[in-house]
Protein backbone atom coordinates (compact mmCIF):
# COMPACT_ATOMS: atom_id res chain seq x y z
CA UNK A 1 0.00 0.00 0.00
CA UNK A 2 1.33 3.46 -0.90
CA UNK A 3 2.43 5.63 2.00
CA UNK A 4 0.71 8.94 2.69
CA UNK A 5 3.88 11.04 2.22
CA UNK A 6 7.00 10.71 0.10
CA UNK A 7 9.39 12.46 2.51
CA UNK A 8 9.04 13.14 6.22
CA UNK A 9 11.39 15.35 8.22
CA UNK A 10 11.96 15.01 11.97
CA UNK A 11 13.67 17.85 13.89
CA UNK A 12 14.96 17.28 17.42
CA UNK A 13 15.21 19.77 20.27
CA UNK A 14 18.46 21.49 21.20
CA UNK A 15 18.16 25.22 21.89
CA UNK A 16 20.13 27.53 19.61
CA UNK A 17 21.72 24.52 17.96
CA UNK A 18 18.52 24.67 15.90
CA UNK A 19 20.53 26.75 13.41
CA UNK A 20 22.07 23.41 12.32
CA UNK A 21 18.57 22.18 11.37
CA UNK A 22 18.34 25.13 8.98
CA UNK A 23 21.65 24.20 7.33
CA UNK A 24 20.48 20.60 6.95
CA UNK A 25 17.21 21.73 5.34
CA UNK A 26 19.11 24.07 2.98
CA UNK A 27 21.24 21.11 1.83
CA UNK A 28 18.12 18.98 1.32
CA UNK A 29 16.51 21.74 -0.77
CA UNK A 30 19.64 21.88 -2.95
CA UNK A 31 19.20 18.16 -3.60
CA UNK A 32 15.59 18.79 -4.58
CA UNK A 33 14.28 17.19 -1.39
CA UNK A 34 11.29 19.03 0.09
CA UNK A 35 9.52 17.55 3.13
CA UNK A 36 5.86 16.61 2.66
CA UNK A 37 5.34 16.40 6.43
CA UNK A 38 7.38 17.64 9.40
CA UNK A 39 7.54 16.60 13.05
CA UNK A 40 9.44 18.80 15.49
CA UNK A 41 10.06 19.39 19.17
CA UNK A 42 11.39 22.41 21.07
CA UNK A 43 13.99 24.11 18.81
CA UNK A 44 12.85 21.70 16.07
CA UNK A 45 9.26 22.89 16.59
CA UNK A 46 10.35 26.51 16.16
CA UNK A 47 12.35 25.75 12.98
CA UNK A 48 9.66 23.38 11.70
CA UNK A 49 6.90 26.00 12.10
CA UNK A 50 8.74 28.41 9.81
CA UNK A 51 9.60 25.77 7.20
CA UNK A 52 6.03 24.39 7.28
CA UNK A 53 4.81 27.96 6.69
CA UNK A 54 6.80 28.06 3.44
CA UNK A 55 9.85 30.10 4.52
CA UNK A 56 13.29 29.18 3.19
CA UNK A 57 16.06 28.14 5.64
CA UNK A 58 17.98 31.29 4.70
CA UNK A 59 14.99 33.52 5.50
CA UNK A 60 14.56 31.78 8.86
CA UNK A 61 18.27 32.16 9.65
CA UNK A 62 17.98 35.92 9.08
CA UNK A 63 14.89 36.16 11.31
CA UNK A 64 16.57 34.21 14.11
CA UNK A 65 19.82 36.14 13.87
CA UNK A 66 17.96 39.37 14.54
CA UNK A 67 17.52 38.03 18.02
CA UNK A 68 15.34 35.41 19.62
CA UNK A 69 15.30 33.35 22.78
CA UNK A 70 16.86 35.34 25.63
CA UNK A 71 16.69 38.65 23.82
CA UNK A 72 12.95 38.15 23.56
CA UNK A 73 12.62 36.38 26.89
CA UNK A 74 11.00 38.24 29.72
CA UNK A 75 12.25 37.68 33.25
CA UNK A 76 9.49 36.06 35.20
CA UNK A 77 10.15 35.61 38.90
CA UNK A 78 9.91 32.03 40.10
CA UNK A 79 6.49 30.75 40.87
CA UNK A 80 6.32 28.15 38.14
CA UNK A 81 9.53 28.86 36.18
CA UNK A 82 12.45 31.27 36.08
CA UNK A 83 11.81 32.81 32.70
CA UNK A 84 8.98 33.39 30.29
CA UNK A 85 9.48 32.51 26.64
CA UNK A 86 6.79 34.83 25.29
CA UNK A 87 9.19 36.18 22.67
CA UNK A 88 9.16 32.87 20.81
CA UNK A 89 5.38 33.09 20.46
CA UNK A 90 5.65 36.74 19.37
CA UNK A 91 8.19 35.92 16.67
CA UNK A 92 6.13 33.00 15.37
CA UNK A 93 2.97 35.14 15.28
CA UNK A 94 4.66 38.21 13.76
CA UNK A 95 6.67 36.38 11.11
CA UNK A 96 4.34 33.54 10.13
CA UNK A 97 0.88 35.16 10.32
CA UNK A 98 -0.81 31.75 10.47
CA UNK A 99 -2.74 31.08 13.65
CA UNK A 100 -3.54 27.38 13.39
CA UNK A 101 -1.17 24.45 12.90
CA UNK A 102 -3.56 22.85 10.41
CA UNK A 103 -3.40 25.92 8.14
CA UNK A 104 0.36 25.66 7.48
CA UNK A 105 1.47 24.82 3.91
CA UNK A 106 3.14 21.57 5.04
CA UNK A 107 1.44 19.21 7.54
CA UNK A 108 3.21 19.68 10.86
CA UNK A 109 3.28 17.77 14.17
CA UNK A 110 4.48 19.49 17.35
CA UNK A 111 5.64 17.31 20.23
CA UNK A 112 4.63 18.54 23.71
CA UNK A 113 4.68 17.02 27.20
CA UNK A 114 1.40 17.10 29.16
CA UNK A 115 2.46 18.01 32.70
CA UNK A 116 -0.88 17.06 34.25
CA UNK A 117 -1.12 13.60 32.71
CA UNK A 118 2.60 12.82 32.38
CA UNK A 119 2.15 11.91 28.71
CA UNK A 120 3.57 12.94 25.35
CA UNK A 121 1.29 14.43 22.68
CA UNK A 122 1.89 15.13 18.99
CA UNK A 123 -0.36 17.99 17.92
CA UNK A 124 -1.13 18.73 14.26
CA UNK A 125 -3.97 21.16 14.95
CA UNK A 126 -4.72 24.00 17.34
CA UNK A 127 -2.98 27.32 18.10
CA UNK A 128 0.43 27.48 16.43
CA UNK A 129 2.13 30.10 18.65
CA UNK A 130 1.05 28.60 21.97
CA UNK A 131 1.86 25.02 20.94
CA UNK A 132 5.37 25.96 19.70
CA UNK A 133 5.86 27.88 22.94
CA UNK A 134 4.79 24.87 25.02
CA UNK A 135 7.09 22.56 23.05
CA UNK A 136 10.04 24.86 23.83
CA UNK A 137 9.39 25.48 27.54
CA UNK A 138 12.11 23.58 29.40
CA UNK A 139 10.68 22.71 32.84
CA UNK A 140 11.93 24.74 35.83
CA UNK A 141 13.61 27.30 33.53
CA UNK A 142 10.46 28.34 31.72
CA UNK A 143 6.87 28.64 32.86
CA UNK A 144 4.52 25.90 31.59
CA UNK A 145 1.98 26.82 28.91
CA UNK A 146 -1.76 26.20 29.22
CA UNK A 147 -3.39 24.46 26.24
CA UNK A 148 -7.05 23.69 26.90
CA UNK A 149 -7.34 22.51 30.50
CA UNK A 150 -3.80 21.20 30.99
CA UNK A 151 -0.29 22.55 31.46
CA UNK A 152 2.36 21.71 28.89
CA UNK A 153 6.17 21.82 28.80
CA UNK A 154 9.04 20.93 26.46
CA UNK A 155 8.20 17.86 24.39
CA UNK A 156 11.85 16.80 24.60
CA UNK A 157 11.20 15.65 28.15
CA UNK A 158 9.24 12.70 26.75
CA UNK A 159 10.45 12.44 23.17
CA UNK A 160 13.33 14.50 21.81
CA UNK A 161 13.35 12.88 18.35
CA UNK A 162 9.64 12.73 17.50
CA UNK A 163 9.51 10.12 14.72
CA UNK A 164 6.39 8.56 16.25
CA UNK A 165 3.56 10.51 14.57
CA UNK A 166 4.92 10.16 11.02
CA UNK A 167 7.18 7.08 10.92
CA UNK A 168 4.56 4.77 9.36
CA UNK A 169 3.32 7.31 6.81
CA UNK A 170 6.52 8.16 4.91
CA UNK A 171 8.43 6.42 2.11
CA UNK A 172 11.54 8.27 3.27
CA UNK A 173 12.18 9.56 6.77
CA UNK A 174 14.96 12.09 7.36
CA UNK A 175 15.95 12.71 10.98
CA UNK A 176 18.03 15.70 12.09
CA UNK A 177 19.31 15.25 15.66
CA UNK A 178 21.17 18.15 17.25
CA UNK A 179 21.35 16.75 20.79
CA UNK A 180 23.80 13.86 20.97
CA UNK A 181 24.72 13.15 24.61
CA UNK A 182 28.30 14.18 25.30
CA UNK A 183 29.53 12.41 28.48
CA UNK A 184 32.28 15.04 28.88
CA UNK A 185 29.96 18.04 28.64
CA UNK A 186 30.57 20.64 31.33
CA UNK A 187 27.47 21.63 33.26
CA UNK A 188 28.32 24.96 34.83
CA UNK A 189 24.96 26.40 35.78
CA UNK A 190 21.29 25.70 36.43
CA UNK A 191 20.35 26.34 32.80
CA UNK A 192 22.78 23.71 31.51
CA UNK A 193 21.80 21.20 34.20
CA UNK A 194 18.07 21.68 33.55
CA UNK A 195 18.60 21.34 29.80
CA UNK A 196 20.67 18.18 30.24
CA UNK A 197 17.96 16.69 32.44
CA UNK A 198 15.33 17.25 29.74
CA UNK A 199 17.42 15.71 27.01
CA UNK A 200 18.60 12.64 28.95
CA UNK A 201 15.81 10.66 27.29
CA UNK A 202 17.51 11.25 23.96
CA UNK A 203 19.69 8.12 24.08
CA UNK A 204 16.67 5.83 24.21
CA UNK A 205 15.00 7.71 21.37
CA UNK A 206 18.14 7.78 19.21
CA UNK A 207 18.09 3.99 18.75
CA UNK A 208 14.46 4.05 17.62
CA UNK A 209 15.08 7.01 15.29
CA UNK A 210 18.12 5.36 13.69
CA UNK A 211 16.11 2.19 13.14
CA UNK A 212 13.29 3.90 11.21
CA UNK A 213 15.24 6.71 9.48
CA UNK A 214 16.14 6.52 5.81
CA UNK A 215 18.76 9.20 6.53
CA UNK A 216 19.95 10.07 10.04
CA UNK A 217 21.75 13.42 10.33
CA UNK A 218 23.77 14.21 13.45
CA UNK A 219 26.31 16.98 12.79
CA UNK A 220 29.79 16.02 13.99
CA UNK A 221 30.98 18.19 16.86
CA UNK A 222 27.60 19.80 17.50
CA UNK A 223 27.72 18.73 21.15
CA UNK A 224 30.54 21.25 21.67
CA UNK A 225 28.14 24.16 21.11
CA UNK A 226 26.25 25.64 24.05
CA UNK A 227 22.48 25.34 23.59
CA UNK A 228 21.88 28.95 24.61
CA UNK A 229 24.51 30.85 22.61
CA UNK A 230 23.33 32.44 19.41
CA UNK A 231 26.64 33.93 18.29
CA UNK A 232 27.51 30.67 16.50
CA UNK A 233 24.47 30.83 14.20
CA UNK A 234 26.41 30.79 10.91
CA UNK A 235 28.84 28.09 12.09
CA UNK A 236 25.97 25.85 13.15
CA UNK A 237 24.10 26.45 9.88
CA UNK A 238 27.27 25.46 7.99
CA UNK A 239 27.77 22.38 10.19
CA UNK A 240 24.24 21.14 9.46
CA UNK A 241 24.66 21.95 5.77
CA UNK A 242 27.99 20.12 5.33
CA UNK A 243 26.96 17.04 7.30
CA UNK A 244 23.76 16.69 5.26
CA UNK A 245 25.61 17.14 1.95
CA UNK A 246 27.88 14.22 2.95
CA UNK A 247 25.00 11.97 4.04
CA UNK A 248 22.63 12.69 1.15
CA UNK A 249 25.02 11.83 -1.67
Describe the structure.
With 249 residues, this protein is an alpha/beta fold. Helix content is 35%, strand content 18%. The protein is globular and about 40 Å long.
Q: What overall form do the CA principal axes indicate?
A: globular
What structural class results from the helix and strand content?
alpha/beta
Percentage of β-strand residues: 15-25%
Q: Strand count, sense and closure of the main sheet?
A: 8 strands, mixed
Which sequence of SSEs, written as H and E, runs from N to C?
A: EHEHHEEHEEHEEEHHEH
N-end to C-end Cα span: 28 Å
Give the % helix.
25-40%
Total count of helical runs of at least 4 residues: 8
Poorly predicted sequence stretches spanning 5 or more consecutive residues:
69-78
Mean pLDDT: 87
Summarize it.
This protein has 249 residues and is an alpha/beta fold. The protein has helices spanning 18-30, 43-52, 57-65, 86-96, 128-136, 190-198, 202-212, 233-247; strands spanning 5-11, 37-41, 74-75, 83-84, 108-114, 119-123, 145-147, 150-154, 170-176, 215-217.
Amino acid sequence: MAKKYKTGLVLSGGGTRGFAHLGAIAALHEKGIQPDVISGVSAGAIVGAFIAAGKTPEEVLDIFKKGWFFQYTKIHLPVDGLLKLDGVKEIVQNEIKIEKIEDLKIPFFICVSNLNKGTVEYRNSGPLGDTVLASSSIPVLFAPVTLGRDLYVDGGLMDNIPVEPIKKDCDNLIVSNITPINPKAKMKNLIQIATRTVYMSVNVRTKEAKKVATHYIEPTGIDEYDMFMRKHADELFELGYKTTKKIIG
